[in-house]
Amino acid sequence: MTHMKGKVVLSRNAMEEVLRLATLNVYGVTGLAPVTFAERFTRALSIPSTPKGVDAQIRKDGTIEATIHVRLQYGLRVSEVARTITSQVRYVFCSMTGISEDRVELNVVVWSIRVEHENE
Amino acid sequence: MKEIGYSELEALFTAALASLESRKAFINSLNVFPVPDGDTGTNMSLTLRTALEEVQKSHPKSMKEFVSTLSAGSLIGARGNSGVILSQIIRGMATAADSKSVLTTTDFSQMLIKATEVAYKAVVTPVEGTILTVVRRMAESASGLHQEDYTEYLAEVIRTGRQAVKETTAQLPALAEAHVVDAGAEGLVTLLEGMLRSLRGESVPAGHLTLEDESEERVGPQDLTYRYDTVILVASDTLPEDEVRSKLTERGDSLVMASAGGLTKIHVHTNEPYDTIQYLMKFAPIREGRIEDMQYQANEYAGGIPTVVSAAAAPPASTDGCAGDNIDRAYVVVSPGSGFEEIFRKLGAQIIVGGGDTMNPPTEAFLDPIRTCNAKSFMIFPNNKNIIMAAQQAAGLVDKNVQVLNARHPVQAIAALVQLASCGLDDDCIAVANQAIDATNFFAVTRATKNATVAGLLVQEGDYMLLVDDKLVALGQSVEQALGHLRESPMAWEDKSLVSVYRGAEFSETSFDSLVSGLTKQFPDLEIQSYYGGQAFYDAVGSVE
Questions:
Q1: What CATH number did the domain enclosing B458 receive?
Q2: Is residue B183 domain-shared with residue B291, that is, in the same domain?
Q3: Which is the most buried residue in B261, B343, B387, B475, by most CB within 10 A?
Q4: Does a structural domain hold residue B81?
């Protein structure tokens, strides 16, 4: 292995996709929220689309900062769900990409809470 | 019993909590990496405990009041992922029981069905093999049951639940690899088993009650009617419960009583802990006790410092080296043992904070000594990846020049301190220290606490694991055998010249000597140095630089 040459490049897009999928597996997350202006615009016009939900940046020093925009289910303790998102997504992301955990900074923005009228 | 009212339901949930608490350690251990951590059991029992404490505070008078308080309490008490899911299950059960005054087994089935519905709503892609699967399977089986007697009914539901828990291993690859069942699922069934045991008049399995069960408690900012959180373990399981309850709630609240195996644990908030102790001693001798000032904790919390009170807290930091006023740089170093502490002192560390793998020092452990020490600047060596966060928090909370270095192991701090000794006032000492840290690989040998598969290696409980830079590299039947694989671990060997090894507190001197001579044979081209580290849990740790 050590004699192999070449390098592996992970694109921002690929990273965002991994983060997206990991986030959607967290208990309490009912969806992702639009990130860019264009996305919000599309949404405002009610054009069906899948919001990206994740904005990842690779900093000059090689560390990664990502902001995850989520929608949560009503009736959950938001702080605990947010904590779970940061730890669980970080774990999945780092084990899938091999990037070490201290090089990844995650922020969570709770965009909205999904309320449903329960027919009890 | 064919019908239960709200007070019986409260008794069932109290028994459920006792059951969860008695198996907390086991549930925590169902973690997929074989080093002790993981806290599903703790999170679930703390969630349920807060819920029941809320109930006791509000003295519900009806089913509706009871379930809505329980549901609200579990929401605010929800801790961790498993706690959040449990709060949803309780919320669902509460919704279904809301309009009833008594509950038949058919009503209980409805509660489980509603719990499943609510719990599933909060997840986009439910994964099979979790607590969700188990609550659903139990609800499905419950709705087909015709037993009217609660004992028979719950026994059936739990039978399905147990089977479903067993099957989680095969449903999730991570669980299959580690040969464990899902911790949250286990917790849920444990909870129901507590209810069944209480219906049968049995107590919680013996010998599990300890004060340590409550080692962590979060306290919110508030003015407290009752100031002292008092937990007493009495050496008897036959206390007159009603009498004790009414006596202790006269001048206290948040009472929780649980009996098991010759012991009763009493948890109460009161202003007169001494009276409580005196009163309880009339019945039986006190086995253990713990009293905590919640007002102090609440003030700390309100001050912006998240206080986690831990019964197994690290020893207080010593600031002996801080006496002089003219220190330019003070080194704050986390040390896992007496040997390391001595080495750090010799290398000029002013502040030593006790802590290591199973004992993470809280933020205050850094704050207090930094506040009292008069140095112009500080460098913190956290020496464990799990402590870096607490150190950074401390750095942000004081108005002093504090740098947190990226040292993830004590041996990296040693390498950095050696380099810093020759770092002048005008040099970029942070860069010097970080360079030394990055150039130092660290290793550790410890025993696996359970069976698991990690990085493709089949780990058996009791195996010795060689971890290099926190990653599992090899296994062996002895410390020596595991360490014999050090050469195979991936690092820039061509740049290395020195291997240092530190003896753990529980590792004998003779075994250590033969370990060192083994290393000399393994690395004829490198210098080998050995010291006493005094660290717990790891028989040997060391560095390659």
A1: 3.30.1180
A2: no
A3: B387
A4: yes
ipTM of the complex: 0.72
Domain's final residue, options B407, B438, B469: B438
- Whether this prediction's pTM lies above 0.90 is answered by no
User: How do residues B98-107 score in pLDDT, each as one tens digit?
Assistant: 999 999 999 9
How big is chain A, counted in residues? 120
Question: What CATH superfamily is the domain A14-114?
Answer: Cation efflux protein, cytoplasmic domain (3.30.70.1350)
B128/B181 same-domain check? yes
Task: Name the minimum distance, in Å, from the CA of A91 to any CA of chain B.
Answer: 13
How close B544 gets to chain A, by Cα (Å)?
Answer: 19
How does residue B187 score in pLDDT terms, banded at 50, 70 and 90?
very high
Phi, psi of B508 (to 5 degrees): -70, 155
Closest by Cβ to B122, choosing from A76, A101, A102: A76
Is B475 within a domain? Answer: yes
Q: Considering its fold, how many domains does chain B have in total? A: 4
User: Which sequence spans correspond to the domains of chain A?
Assistant: 14-114
Identify which of B76, B84, B95 has the shortest CB distance to residue A27: B84
pLDDT digits (tens, 9 = 90+) for B33-69: 444 345 788 889 999 999 999 899 889 999 999 999 9
Q: Is the pLDDT of residue B204 over 60?
A: no
Task: Give the CA count within 13 Å in the CB-facing half-sphere of B483.
Answer: 32
Of A27, A76, A80, the CB nearest to B79: A80
Terminal Cα-to-Cα distance of chain B (whole angstroms): 70
B122 CB neighbours in chain A (<8 A) are: 27-28, 30, 72-73, 75-76
Distances (CA, A) of B155 to B15, B184, B200: 15, 20, 10
Range of the domain at B249: 224-295
pLDDT at residue B206 greater than cutoff 60 = no
pLDDT in tens, B413-455: 999 988 888 777 666 888 888 888 988 999 999 888 777 777 7
Residues B159 and B123 grouped into a single domain: yes
B84, A118: Cβ pair inside 8 Å?
A: no
Q: Which of B60, B21, B24 is nearest to B41 (CA)?
A: B24
Minimum distance, in Å, between the CA of residue B348 and any CA atom of chain A: 28
Give yes or no: residues B40 and B169 share one domain.
yes
Bridge-based pairing state of the strands B252-260 and B228-234:
unpaired
Q: Is the confidence at residue B252, as pLDDT, over 90? A: no
* Claim to verify: residue B29 and residue B138 sit in the same structural domain: yes
State whether B434 and B456 are in the same domain.
no
Using a CB–CB cut-off of 8 Å, the residues of A that contact B are 1-2, 24-31, 72-73, 75-77, 80-81, 83-84, 88, 101-102, 116, 118, 120
Suggest the residue from A61, A80, A110 to mutate for an interface test with chain B (most B CBs closer than 10 A). Answer: A80
Please report whether residue B309 resides in a domain: no
- Please determine, for residue B153, whether its predicted confidence score (pLDDT) is greater than 60: yes
Q: Pick the residue from chain A with its C-alpha nearest to B124.
A: A30
Exposed / middle / buried, residue B254 (Cβ in 10 Å: 0-12, 13-18, 19+): buried
DSSP string, B88-133: HHHHHHHHHHTT-SSB-HHHHHHHHHHHHHHHHHT-SSPPSSSHHH
Query: Which residues in chain A have Cβ-Cβ distances shorter than 8 Å to B96?
Result: 120
